[in-house]
Amino acid sequence: MAQALAADHHGRVPETMEELVCLPGVGRKTANVLLGTWFHKPAIFVDTHVARLAGRLGCSAETEPERIERDLMALFPEPEWTFTAHALIWHGRRVCAARKPACERCGLASDCPFPARN
Q1: Is 29 annotated in the active site?
Q2: pTM (two decimals)
Q3: I need a labelling partner for 5 at 20 to 30 A (CA). Which of 14, 46, 108, 110 fits?
Q4: Is residue 95 within 8 Å of residue 102, measured between CB atoms?
Q5: Distance between CA atoms of 17 and 69, rounded to whole angstroms?
Q6: What is the pLDDT of residues 18-35, one digit of tens each?
């Protein structure tokens, strides 16, 4: 990837999805992380935590990251997309774990459809 950055982009990380995903080893998720976190452009990145929570919270019934991304983009205001992705990741790591969600200490429990499934 470093060689492609040097050869094709004068050593600079490109600022568009189209250019980023052409770099070796960069997929849509990584491109969105860079766009949202580094370049401060609205972006929702879908990792396993975001995918899991989007389903548990009833934000998306999809399983493909790009479709989950679209569903979340439709639900949240564009200026909040990057924060939303980071917040879902943090919540998925700290509270709503895959195997044992800590519903008893979750600030979203009263509005979450997931506990009903337990």
Answers
A1: yes
A2: 0.89
A3: 46
A4: yes
A5: 14
A6: 999 999 999 999 999 999
